């Protein structure tokens, strides 16, 4: 369970990233955060694994207030909370397998990881996860030889390999074309359901949010302006969240062609 | 048609032109003054051309029998360069990381590292050799130490700039999955810089070969000692043999390392 209690974040330059957020996210939920760029979606998500540090309030993950974590306890938190990025953030010159196994680094001693000495179970886990996203035949390819959608799938395999309780995805499909976007979202949804991993995804495409989310949280100017089940959301709701009429660019469109 | 009230007479404003002219005169004046104070005039080159041809003539033909004396010293030079480059490369790795502002976010530490490096790089290799010969005595050991310091200055400068230009997003991913600092560097930074790092190491090896020739002049071992000795004995034919051998070796090593580096990047 993740709980935001009166959480605010002010950047050193005075910009308010988050304004007094109070939200509870339950285990196993698939939450989509929507909002225009600059609304605070990234700040919201990055607070949960402390890539940014909120300045006021409390943020409870798995029963602990994480705002004072540092060093070892912060790494323990990050083992539990995996992350997927818009630009995949793979090491392009390394192989697919090396990228995926790097999800185990939090569990592996420094010296062992330097000499690539991962236990057999870890290698097995990495390979199984590559199979889950159907990219196991690219095992020894360099990451930069893969297409965008394939790279994002590798990054999903990497995050699975760290066996997280929570997956954060920061605009995971913003750099992909419509069919690939749906494919990536379907993998995320499937993993959420099969493994009961709490999943929080930032999106700005309203059609995708409505299609995949259990629950939608709307943000504007650092504040939560909407919170409710995806089934109750209409285009009207989005116009309220965005504070303007819905445009074509707010839609991803295109179904996955299998 | 109306007569235009203003026609620009030049492509640059008058003020820019004036500044340019003045700078030009100033630079010219500076040349003239330095030429007079150092008593070196370009005309000397033509007046003394006879000396040049006469001296060059004394270098020929090269004394090929001298080559047996050159061999051991040649290998000493190569050994010095190999050892110095290897040690310098190992020492440079942590220092390059400390001198890159995206890895070393501590401003104070970063600036101290930069300052030390700038000092090292302002010291010419020959001065380093003189200092180490004074400390450790005449011989290859002093030369090796001088080369190490010299090579670290170059390598760390080149490498830290490469590190500063890498893509930081994989580091963010490793950090976000619970990896510690060393793991992040090893998995996200090192793969990105490894090809350039090897390439620069080979380049520094080439530089070390050339530099070790100069170091010999001050008694820091290597083939340069022979040149110094032969010049003192006015044995110019042996000097020309040595120079030709060095030339051949440098060309061969440049070629090999060039080929290796082509395969890397």
Automatic annotation (TrEMBL), chain A:
Molecular function, one GO term: ABC-type phosphonate transporter activity
In the UniProt record, does the keyword Repeat occur? no
Name the domain of life: Bacteria
Gene3D superfamilies in the cross-refs: P-loop containing nucleotide triphosphate hydrolases
Alphabetical keyword list: ATP-binding, Cell membrane, Membrane, Nucleotide-binding, Phosphonate transport, Translocase, Transport
- Pfam families annotated for this entry? ABC_tran (PF00005)
Q: Quote the protein name from its UniProt record.
A: Phosphonate ABC transporter ATP-binding protein
Name the CDD domains for this protein.
ABC_PhnC_transporter
Q: What is the lineage of its organism?
A: Bacteria, Bacillati, Bacillota, Bacilli, Bacillales
| The gene coding this protein | phnC
- One Gene Ontology cellular component: membrane
Record's keyword annotation contains rRNA processing? no
Taking the record's annotation, the residue ranges forming a coiled coil are none
Organism listed in the record: Aquibacillus koreensis
The UniProt record lists the ABC transporter domain at 2-246
From TrEMBL, chain B:
- Annotated membrane-spanning segments are 20-47, 78-103, 209-227, 239-257
A cellular component term from Gene Ontology for this protein is: plasma membrane
Subcellular location, principal: membrane
Which GO molecular function entries does the Swiss-Prot or TrEMBL record give?
Answer: ABC-type phosphonate transporter activity
Keyword terms of this UniProt record:
Cell membrane, Membrane, Transmembrane, Transmembrane helix, Transport
Q: Which InterPro entries match?
A: MetI-like, MetI-like_sf, PhnE/PtxC
All residue ranges annotated as the ABC transmembrane type-1 domain in the record = 74-257
Q: Where in the cell is it found?
A: Cell membrane
How does this chain sit within the bilayer?
Multi-pass membrane protein
Q: Sorted alphabetically, which PANTHER family does this protein's record hold? A: ABC TRANSPORT SYSTEM PERMEASE PROTEIN P69 (PTHR30043:SF1), PHOSPHONATES TRANSPORT SYSTEM PERMEASE PROTEIN (PTHR30043)
NCBIfam families (UniProt xref): PhnE
Family under the similarity heading? Belongs to the binding-protein-dependent transport system permease family.
Q: Under what name is this protein listed?
A: Phosphonate ABC transporter, permease protein PhnE
């Amino acid at each position: 369970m993740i709980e935001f209690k009166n959480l605010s974040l002010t950047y050193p330059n005075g910009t308010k990233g988050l304004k007094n957020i109070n939200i509870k996210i339950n285990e196993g939920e698939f939450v989509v955060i929507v909002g225009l760029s600059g609304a605070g979606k990234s700040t919201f998500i990055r607070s949960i694994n402390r890539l940014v540090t909120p300045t006021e309030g409390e943020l409870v993950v798995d029963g602990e207030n994480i705002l004072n974590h540092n060093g070892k306890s912060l790494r323990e938190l990050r083992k539990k909370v995996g992350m997927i990025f818009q630009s995949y953030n793979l090491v392009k010159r390394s192989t697919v397998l090396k990228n995926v196994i790097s999800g185990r680094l939090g569990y592996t001693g420094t010296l062992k990881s330097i000499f690539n000495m991962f236990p057999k179970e870890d290698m097995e886990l990495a390979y199984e996860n590559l199979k889950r996203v159907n990219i196991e035949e690219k095992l020894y390819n360099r990451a930069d030889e893969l297409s965008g959608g394939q790279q994002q799938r590798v990054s999903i395999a990497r995050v699975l390999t760290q066996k997280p309780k929570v997956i954060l995805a920061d605009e995971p499909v913003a750099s992909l074309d419509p069919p690939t976007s749906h494919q990536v979202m379907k993998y995320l949804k499937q993993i959420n359901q099969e493994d009961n991993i709490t999943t929080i995804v930032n999106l700005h495409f309203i059609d995708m949010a409505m299609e995949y989310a259990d629950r939608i949280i709307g943000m504007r100017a650092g504040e939560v302006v909407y919170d409710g089940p995806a089934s109750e959301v209409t285009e009207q709701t989005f116009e309220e969240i965005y504070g303007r009429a819905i445009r074509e660019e707010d839609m991803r469109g295109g179904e996955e062609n299998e | 048609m109306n007569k235009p009230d203003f026609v620009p007479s030049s492509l640059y404003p008058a003020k820019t032109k004036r500044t340019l002219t003045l700078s030009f005169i100033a630079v010219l004046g500076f040349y003239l003054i330095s030429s007079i104070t150092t008593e070196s005039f370009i005309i000397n080159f033509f007046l003394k051309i006879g000396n040049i041809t006469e001296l060059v003539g004394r270098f020929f033909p090269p004394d090929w029998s001298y080559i047996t004396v050159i061999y051991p010293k040649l290998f000493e030079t190569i050994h010095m360069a190999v050892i110095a480059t290897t040690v310098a490369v190992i020492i440079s790795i942590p220092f390059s990381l400390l001198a890159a502002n995206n890895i070393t976010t501590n401003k104070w530490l970063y600036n101290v590292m930069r300052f030390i490096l700038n000092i090292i790089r302002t010291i010419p290799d020959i001065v380093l050799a003189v200092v180490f010969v004074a400390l450790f005595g005449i011989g290859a050991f002093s030369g090796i130490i001088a080369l190490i310091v010299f090579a670290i200055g170059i390598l760390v400068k080149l490498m830290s700039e490469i590190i500063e230009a890498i893509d930081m997003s994989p580091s963010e991913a490793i950090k976000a999955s619970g990896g510690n600092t060393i793991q992040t560097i090893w998995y996200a930074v090192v793969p990105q810089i490894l090809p350039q790092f090897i390439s620069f190491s080979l380049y520094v090896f080439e530089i070390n070969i050339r530099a070790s020739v100069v170091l010999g002049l001050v008694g820091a071992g290597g083939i340069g000692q022979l040149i110094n000795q032969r010049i003192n004995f006015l044995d110019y034919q042996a000097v020309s043999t040595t120079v030709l051998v060095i030339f051949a070796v440098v060309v061969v090593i440049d070629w090999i390392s060039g080929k290796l580096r082509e395969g890397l990047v």
